[in-house]
Amino acid sequence: MKKIIILNKPKGCRLANQLWNYISIYAYSLEIGARCVNFCFYENKKDQITGVRSYDNYYKYFNIPNHKIISLIVNLNTIINRLSQKLRPLNRYVKYIKNKNKIICSGEEMAFYLEPTKNNSIINNKTTKIYFDGWMFRNPKGIEKYRREIIKYFAPKEKFIKKIESKINKLKSKYNHIVGVHIRKGDYKVFLGGKLYFDDREINKILQEYLKEFNKDKDKTCFLACSDEKINMDKFPGLNIIKNNGNMIEDLFILAKTDIIIGSDSTFGAFASYYGDVPFVVFQKPKMDWEYYKDKKYYFENKHNTLTFY
User: Fold this and answer.
1) Which keywords accompany this UniProt record (predicted)?
2) Closest listed residue to residue 273, CA positions, set 255, 292, 247
3) CA 156 to CA 161: how far, in whole Å?
4) Is 212 helix (H, G, I), strand (E, B) or coil?
5) Is residue 307 part of a domain?
6) What pLDDT shows up at residue 279?
């Protein structure tokens, strides 16, 4: 069987960015009947304040089939990287492959579209192994065509599913309408000059507007907030709002279980929208484009989501 091998991605490329890349290449592998292997499904992030690098093997959160050996290789690579940045065995392997084979690179500024979205003559389908390097591979037609397979392939592990379903079922027994709220603070305070950052006061205003614009009963509506930082609940008077105190996987997939997602301009909220097939409303300044969302019932490519590069 033909094999597609994902080799490398920029340092700091976090979970949702990697998932958009991974599902696009996986859809391509299904289209051409190939096996997809990803050697870079892990986090390698440097703290901008302390300078300390953190590593996290993303395979441990998912039930991706036939990837135990790959996961062990990723674990070994991250352990060695913790000990010495100079060794970096996976990087050395990538350089070796690049010297011996033709690698397909996505670039950094523009999406590289794959079949069935677009035919790319640069990809030689006659070879037994196709190597991909980069994080900007996209496949909008492919992820639609193979949605069922993707949802199954990228399902989180059962222990996370149980926690997510338990929490969401309790909320649905109490409220008629559940709104997922994704709030990214942290690096957004400085990223792009802070233009994508929203404080709690601004977010409260948006949520209050949502109730009015969509004619929702505030007593029957619950806002389930997922954030990378603490949320001051006192800034949301009159709203039924709770914070999901889970890890990033629980946040991502519980957002996918809500009726609609409102949140920061990011790939995180966008992926939750795709996985759950629910609308995604993006925070905007100085005002929200509510009319744009009035007819949206399911996942769609949001023109106001500037960072996903659909």
Assistant:
1) Glycosyltransferase, Transferase
2) 255
3) 7
4) helix
5) no
6) 99
